[in-house]
Amino acid sequence: MVSLRIYSFLIFFFAATGLRAQSTPPLERLISVDIRNQRIEEALRQISSAGRFEFSYNPAHVDKNALVTVRLTNVPVRQVLNQVFANTLTYKARGNHIILLRAEQTDSTPKNLLLDGYILDETTGERIGQASIFEKTTLASTVSNPFGYYRIKLPTDLPMIRLDVRKQAYVGETVTVRGKFTHTINVRLKPLPQNIPVQAQALPIRVTEDTTRSTTPLGLAAVSVELPAVQADTMPRQETLSILDRGRVGVMKLLVSAQQTIHDINMNRDTLYRDWQISFLPYIGTNHRLSGRIINRFSVNVLAGYSFGVQAFEVGGLLNLVGGDVHGFQAAGWGNLVGRQVNGVQVGGLFNVNGGDVSGLQAAGTFNVNLKQVQAVQLGGLFNMNLKQAQGVQVGGLFNFTLGEQPGVAQIGGLMNIAGNKIKGLQLAGLVNYAHGDLRGWQISGIVNRARTITGGHQIGLINIADSAGNIPIGLLSHVQKGGYRRIEVSSDEVNLFNIAYRTGVRQFYNILSAGTSFERVGSPRLSAGYGLGTAFNLSKRTMLSLEGTAHHLFYFQGKDTGWNQQIRFSTLIETRFSKNLSLAFGPSINWYFTDNETSKPIRQPAISLYDNRASDFGRTYNWGWIGFQVGLRFGNSNS
Length: 640
Hints:
Elements: H1 2-23, E1 30-39, H2 40-51, E2 54-57, E3 67-76, H3 77-85, E4 89-94, E5 97-102, E6 112-121, E7 132-134, E8 141-143, E9 149-155, E10 161-166, E11 173-177, E12 183-184, E13 187-189, E14 206-209, E15 221-223, H4 243-255, H5 258-266, E16 272-281, E17 284-285, E18 294-301, E19 304-307, E20 309-316, E21 319-322, E22 326-332, E23 335-338, E24 342-348, E25 351-354, E26 358-364, E27 367-370, E28 374-380, E29 383-386, E30 390-396, E31 399-402, E32 406-413, E33 416-419, E34 423-429, E35 432-435, E36 439-445, E37 448-455, E38 459-469, E39 474-482, E40 485-492, E41 498-506, E42 509-517, E43 527-538, E44 543-555, E45 565-579, E46 582-595, E47 608-615, E48 622-635
Parallel strand pairs: 2-5, 6-12, 6-13, 11-14, 16-18, 18-20, 19-21, 20-22, 21-23, 22-24, 23-25, 24-26, 25-27, 26-28, 27-29, 28-30, 29-31, 30-32, 31-33, 32-34, 33-35, 34-36, 35-37, 36-37, 36-38, 37-38, 38-39
Antiparallel strand pairs: 1-3, 4-5, 6-9, 7-8, 7-10, 10-11, 14-15, 16-17, 40-41, 40-48, 41-42, 42-43, 43-44, 44-45, 45-46, 46-48, 47-48
Protein name: Secretin/TonB short N-terminal domain-containing protein
InterPro entries: CarboxyPept-like_regulatory, Secretin/TonB_short_N
Keywords: Cell outer membrane, Membrane, Transport
């Protein structure tokens, strides 16, 4: 039984080992060989046996009598073949076969050379995938495959060939290539110390020399530069991205190639410069796959383009994608998506979205969205949205929204303006203005204005709401929470035995809503509803004078309700305070009543008649005039 279990385990172990070998491409399988002065056919047999694959080749391309000596431990099959054939053959993997092909014949002075090899971890020796390998002059670049292998083609006419290698969490490596011929260079990268963050800027780059010679296409000798010590408490912290910022980054990644995204991550400490570039798509252009790390002075994108920055001028048929800053002029048929600052003029047929500060002019057919401070003129066909401080002018067809402070801005929205913090300037909207913080300036809307403290200007709208106001709100209904004028009054006059009224606004200018009844007395109106305006003046510490004008509609709920039954009242009232929240108000009033029904005047209490049943010069309107009197109790804070 024990022997059976051991036998089953061995079968499972070797089967799993074989499956892992089969899942790794033949050229990338790690093998160990010890071939000493063997003929080439025997050497290939031992290599294929160690790697669990088969060779396919034309015997005419291989010298059968050549003797081979190779002693290597735990290296990729590709590296073993490089040493066996010294770059006289090339190799391709097909399934579980390696095909040996004769290398292309080149002139004595070839125009290009091929460099290949592996990117390795200097500490562990493990192969590093998705590392960026590039040459700054030609902008040629590639990315190591999942097994750390790379291959790059470079021209031989370069005065000096320097190969740069970058990988996130590793010290950058720059290799000076001495031999201008096709050969192999293995590059070892040093991991960053744990006390230095990946995002740290200005880290040194290790400079190494390619010691390869034409007869020995092997690795390199590295001369390293030690990193300075960095205290943990001095490490810069990575800023947490907002939802909109993550969305902007996601859209940019969606439009660029996977290799460009890898370069952006690995080369976050490298910036390249070019005077100009032309792109057809983000990954097809003169900046090649390194476009995300290149700053251009002039940029032309036929459909869409991607770069790290623009310093003077950029136009795009559809989209401009910039990971860094834009200075100058930028225009696109659809829109502009910029990761950081914009300084100049930005025009998008549909939209502009920016992750950094903006200054200058922004214009878009539908919307402008900025995630940081704005000091600009913003013109949005539908809306403008800013998540931090804004200064300048905002014009939106529907609305303007700013979450931060607005120390000097004019917001003009077809429907609404929203300021999430303090604002200094003007809010003008067709429907609603909202300021979550203090307003130093004006709010003008068709319906509602809302702010915390109003100074230096006024609120003008149907409804005005403020926590406190240093100036007078003007509208159909105004409410000021602190320091405002608010009174509930119960009163009686010559028309209604009982009236209730609400006064709201500020003492200098307030609104009046009222209703009254005569308790169904015969010939009297059964109900009245009124609206008016008033102002009040302090006569002494306990006494106030109010001047009010109100208009009332009288409901008889009889035949007289078929037309106009209007009363206009002008009142002069004295308010005397009994306690903090109770006052007595009384005084005379001048009244004018008109209706299209010839009937008696509606008063039932003593009054002084001015004229009776006077017919107007036009239509069938009849008028009455009299001097009345009103007395009532007011409830509310008399100190306001």
